[in-house]
Amino acid sequence: MRLEQLFRGRGEPDRPPDPTMPLRFLIHLPNFVRLYWRLLHDKRVPLFPKALLVAAIAYAISPIDLLSDFSLPIIGVLDDVALLGLAIRYFIPLCPRNVVEEHVKLIDGGE
After folding, report:
1. Does residue 85 lie in a domain region?
2. What does the alpha-carbon distance between residue 39 and residue 99 come to, in Å, rounded to a whole number?
3. Is residue 12 in some structural domain?
């Protein structure tokens, strides 16, 4: 399955949830990393989505947390994971659709 097929059908309200989506995401994780990297370096992507993703990554690896990883071990890690997950989830929808589609086709083509 190509990366482009994962994006097909997004935003269709009548479509039932796909239970295989997490597995397909893991299989395509290297392609997603490449896509995110390319979009971060594309000048056509606005500053806000880039800043959102970079800030979430910086917060996740920063030793300074709102909820300490040491005093609240499970909750302290979960806030980092949740914030990073939200940023990763909303980065693509905040990018211009035509730019995302262009990069997906290039990645699927082997570039």
Report:
1. yes
2. 8
3. no
- Angle among Cα 55, 50, 58 to the nearest 5 degrees reads 20
**Whole-model pTM?**
0.72
Rounded to an integer, what distance in angstroms lies between the CA atom of residue 78 and that of residue 16? 28
Model confidence pLDDT, tens digit, residues 48-88: 999 999 999 998 888 777 767 667 778 777 888 888 999 99
The pair phi, psi for residue 96, each rounded to 5°, is: -60, 130
Residue 47 structural domain: 3-7+28-108
Amino acid at 59: Y
Residue at 54 is within a domain: yes
Number of domains in the chain: 1
Q: And the tokens for 50? A: 């880039």
CA distance 46 to 50: 7
Measured CA to CA, the distance from residue 35 to residue 106 in angstroms comes to 9
Establish if 53 belongs to a structural domain.
Answer: yes
